[in-house]
Design brief:
Layout (H helix, E strand, L loop, with lengths): L18 H9 L3 H21 L1 H11 L14 E2 L17 E2 L10 H8 L2 H7 L2
Antiparallel strand pairs: 1-2
Helix pairs in contact: 1-2
């Protein structure tokens, strides 16, 4: 997604999930799964997008000439879990999960595990 006057959603398949990612995406169909796995999925895919940001934006600017003068700071990255029963919806700018800024996705799996088992995190899951 690009912050412009008309903010277009440009769907790309940048990260295609393997079995583990597909499991996480499937688990997010219910509330319990979203509470457990949403942050992990968003963080992992977000980090992958930010890591390849230059290459992604270069490709977009080649493919879409109207984006050539858009500064990198105006690009926003998001993900959408596709509903396989409704392929036409894949290209609509609906139900997008916009990634937080890159610095908010920093940290290791161990950091995440510590946060997950903190009293605050466990309390919010069972509230």
């Amino acid at each position: 997604k690009v912050k412009m006057n008309a903010s277009p959603w440009v769907p790309l398949t940048i990260v295609k999930g393997g079995q583990a990612a597909n499991y996480l995406a499937k688990s997010m169909e219910n509330e319990w799964g979203r509470k457990l796995y949403a942050k992990t999925l968003i963080k992992n895919i977000g980090q992958a997008c930010y890591k390849d940001r230059d290459q992604i934006e270069r490709g977009l600017k080649q493919q879409y000439p109207n984006l050539r003068k858009v500064p990198s700071s105006n690009f926003e990255y998001a993900m959408k879990i596709r509903d396989k029963s409704d392929p036409k919806s894949w290209y609509k700018a609906e139900d997008l999960t916009i990634f937080p800024p890159e610095e908010e996705l920093a940290g290791t799996a161990l950091d995440d595990l510590k946060k997950f088992f903190s009293a605050e995190s466990l309390g919010s899951m069972f509230a």
